[in-house]
Amino acid sequence: MGRAGADRRAPLGSLTRHGTDSPQGVHVLDADFFRRWLTAAAVCVDREAGRLTELDSAIGDADHGSNLQRGFAAVTAVLEKEAPQTPGAVLTLAGRQLISTVGGASGPLYGTLLRRTGKALGEDAEVTPGRFAEALRAGVAAVAQLGGAKAGDKTMLDALEPAVAALGDTTASFAAASEAAERGALATVPMQARKGRASYLGERSIGHQDPGATSSALLITTLAEVSS
């Protein structure tokens, strides 16, 4: 499924431990962490764009890879230009940029995911992984509401819902979320699509991995990599 191995070697510098201010061993995520995540995601999407488009050509409009490639490049540019100072502001700005830049369904869906997650984080300068997990769960719920889909419909939710479930209620394991998302994407192969463009194919959608679930798994995988 592709991993942003080069990004893993970059110095993180934004995932810090607090001694007396936070529970022992709790990592705190700041705006720089989320900028690194989205930058790494842009690199990963750029590298995997051809594969995403190939998957989409079988059951969609053959533009998923190129659309996300353009959208995440725009996200990287706007984050560098405006330099938001809180995690919530980073994700909210990225979500707005995806909605305004990416065509088709993926722009509104990915944009909603990030924007709703950012709004749930509020204006705090730092958040715990557990707090981020709760916010991401809200973002995934917003995607489900917007698309009218649920797990098992052969959509991006088949990767995102297992990912947020793996994060847990109080502690976040990004590696576990990545593994769950990848398994969820692979599990879409035998499914019949019930939402989106692929649903028009009926039984002919069976046997193909969903491109939205695949790109969602890539997003969660880069999250795990920048946090390691």
Automatic annotation (TrEMBL):
GO cellular component, one term: cytosol
Region described as Disordered: spans on this chain: 1-21
A GO term for molecular function: glycerone kinase activity
GO BP: any one term: glycerol catabolic process
Keywords: Kinase, Transferase
DhaL domain span: 32-225
Biased composition (Basic and acidic residues): 1-10
SMART domains attached to this UniProt entry: Dak2 (SM01120)
NCBIfam families named in the record: dha_L_ycgS (TIGR02365)
Name of the protein in question: Dihydroxyacetone kinase subunit L
The organism of origin for this protein: Streptomyces lunaelactis
Phylogenetic lineage: Bacteria, Bacillati, Actinomycetota, Actinomycetes, Kitasatosporales
